[in-house]
Amino acid sequence: MITLHHLNNSRSQRILWLLEELGAPYEIKRYQRDPKTMKAPPELRAIHPLGKSPVITEDGLTLAETGAIVDYLVETHGGFGPAAEGQMRWQYRHFLHYAEGSAMPPLVMKLVFSRIPAGLPKLLRPLLKPVFAKLDRIFLEPQLQTHADYWEQSLAATGWFAGPDISAADIMMSFPLEAGRNRIGFDNRPNCRAFLERIHSRPAYQRALEAGGPYAYA
Ligand SMILES: N[C@@H](CCC(=O)N[C@@H](CS)C(=O)NCC(=O)O)C(=O)O
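A: This is the predicted complex of the input protein with glutathione.
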């Protein structure tokens, strides 16, 4: 039986969703973020030295990192993997790695930049706030727009990221798009909006939400 070490309101929601899509038996061990720092509690470090979620344990295996867990679940349970042949197979691999490797870092930076000014000593705030605003404008925003344009274009052919049907690549990409809806904006990106509507209406997605508890991005 798989145990999912699930941190509330986190990337771990994707693993719950995949488990529900695959119909794999699992149990959840819950961890709550510190409401002030948003950090995971120290108990998660006892499971994996990085202390982050998601982590799964099964039969003596402890596995962290969403993409690796997705690979493990697709391989051990079948379904939601890449198309059998052709370029889409590699498109699937691309999005599996791209989601955390390239799309998430600037989205996380955007969140951090937006929070830093409020955490600074009061006297420094008026001095440093414009610095972060400028960094955001010249460094982060253009990158985020490039990523979101790429998503919009990638979804144009089929509405999915790697082929004619939903795959684990779409599950990996759900988190960047969910975070990107507010941090980048999809007003002029109908394919991204439709993707989110399509995934959010899936019964397995809904079951995963019920199992995982409050999730700010859905
Ligand atoms: N790239 C990793 C990121 C893991 C990660 O940063 N998880 C966040 C939740 S979204 C976390 O555990 N944050 C709590 C903390 O850093 O203390 C993955 O996809 O698994």
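The mean pLDDT is 95. The CA atoms of residues 62 and 94 lie 25 Å apart.
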